[in-house]
Amino acid sequence: MLYINCPHCGMRSQNEFSYGGDASVKRPELNTEISDKEWDDFVYNRKSLRGKHLELWQHISGCRQWIKVERDTATHEIFRTFKADEEVA
Amino acid sequence: MQKYSIFNLVKNAFSNHENWDLAWKDPTPKEEYDVVIIGGGGHGLATAYYLAKEHNITNVAIIEKGWIGGGNVGRNTTIIRSNYMHDENGLFSEFGMDLWRKMSQDLNYNVMFSPRGIINLAHSDAQMNAYARRGNSMRLNGIDAVLLNREQVKEIIPMADFSENVRFPIFGGLMQPSAGTARHDAVAWGYARQADSMGVDIIQNCEVIGFDVSAGKIKGIRTSRGNIKAKKVGICVAGSTNILAEKLNMTLPIETHLLQACVSEPVKPVLDNVVTFGAGHFYVSQSDKGEMVMGGDLDGYNSYAQRGNLPTLQHVLTEGIAMMPFLSKLKMLRTWGGIMDMSMDGSPIIDKTHIEGLYLNCGWCYGGFKATPASGWTFAHTIAQDRVHELNAGYSLNRFSTGHLIDEKGLGTKTWIS
Questions:
Q1: β partners of residue B78
Q2: Cβ–Cβ < 8 Å for A66, A47
Q3: What are the structural domains of chain A?
């Protein structure tokens, strides 16, 4: 069982959350010309890192907020959690 | 190579079975190979076997980080089927069914292929219609499919929950009678033994740490046991695909996720077929030892840990108990997890890459085991001829950018988000 520290609600079990994928993926800016390659990278291509991975989760059975979680994909250790709009250094 | 036969079994019994040949050797890597296959799992071993058998290319090495057959071919639910609607998947898998039927004779190794049939249960009229459509598509591609009504399903699996007041009543099902199971380890060992006998070097405990590429052409690989030159390199590493891709500065339409499965304590024969729940993701069959072999959903988040978490297992088994209530009385014997190369449309990739001489075989999602022979056969063709075979032409790497996705389930781009 993963325990995720929701920045809004505190420590909760993974049962309350749903997963939203790689948080480092940025949607291309609206109203700018982008190449097929850039769009491809946004929609399909993923690094799928082994080790430290910044990812989106939604506290779907809690405050329903989206959050960012820094987690190790090999050990499942969770290092830090952030609000969705927080910049992660 | 010593043939496995009743005669040799009796002969070796007189010497207490101490004089059998080793099934495969433990060679030191040579300086150069015509083809290097990275990954000694089912697909990699099958690829090497078909390179030797179909294309007469025997200066081949299989490079395996751990031991052969220790990854997903050693940790799956052994289901073999070709009940797909789309032509690309149906024709590819049905080609594989033919190879499965001949495999034990072909490899001189009993892979215990058991064509016991698979039944996908339907729980609504809409689902029955969808199954009728899929069944018709299968039959057009020469794959056997039978649409069963509720009474016919009850004849075959009376132990399922056929009571009236359940949340997901059984309306009927779609059956592929020729589908089945096989002994997974034997598949890996059978391919390894034959490949070895034809001159393929199986090199275990050898990790790939880098690639030598110059002028857009592959020159060789760097490994924990030294550099190996190669004219061609095939990558066949399932859940570790992204790790190798990173070394090549490639990002792929693949994420690595964890899939769990489990077996119950062994019980007397009760279930003759493979059965899947239609209102969720759960499948079950009974092994020859009597264990109920069960699996279902991914854990749901990126993972390279070859072990799972209990919430997913609980969720999957809740579906199982809804389908067959007697399962709740069984004790769990073992659970395990493997890391899956989940592609963005749920279908695999067998293709050339932008680097000359480098080939990619990945994206098998939930269905890698059943694809082992067809994957090896087509990948060997792609490597040997430097062009894709018509069977794997649809499994291209660029189909995501051109919009030619093969989305069997209609789940969109993120197949694991339900």
A1: none
A2: no
A3: 3-25+35-83 (3.30.2270.10)
Q: What is the pLDDT of residue A88?
A: 86
With beta carbons under 8 A apart, name residues in chain B contacting A44: 253, 344, 400-401, 413
Chain-chain contact of A50 with B242 (C-beta, under 8 angstroms): yes
Q: Which residue has the tokens 């993974």?
A: A14
Cβ contact (<8 Å) for A46 and B242? Answer: yes
Query: Which amino acid belongs to residue A32?
Result: T
Nearest CA in chain B to A70: B302
Please compute the mean of the pLDDT values over residues B144-156 and round it to a whole number.
Answer: 98
Tell me the chain A residues in contact with residue B344 when contact means C-beta distances shorter than 8 Å.
Answer: 43-44
pTM, whole model, 2 decimals?
A: 0.96
pLDDT of residue B306: 86
Q: What 3-state class would DSSP assign to A1? A: coil
DSSP label at residue A66: E
Question: B303 contacts in A (CB within 8 Å)?
Answer: 73-74, 76
Does this complex have an ipTM over 0.90?
yes
Contact predicate B119/B275, CB 8 Å: yes
Is residue B229 within a helix (H) or strand (E), and if so which, with residue range?
strand B226-235
Amino acid identity of B242?
N
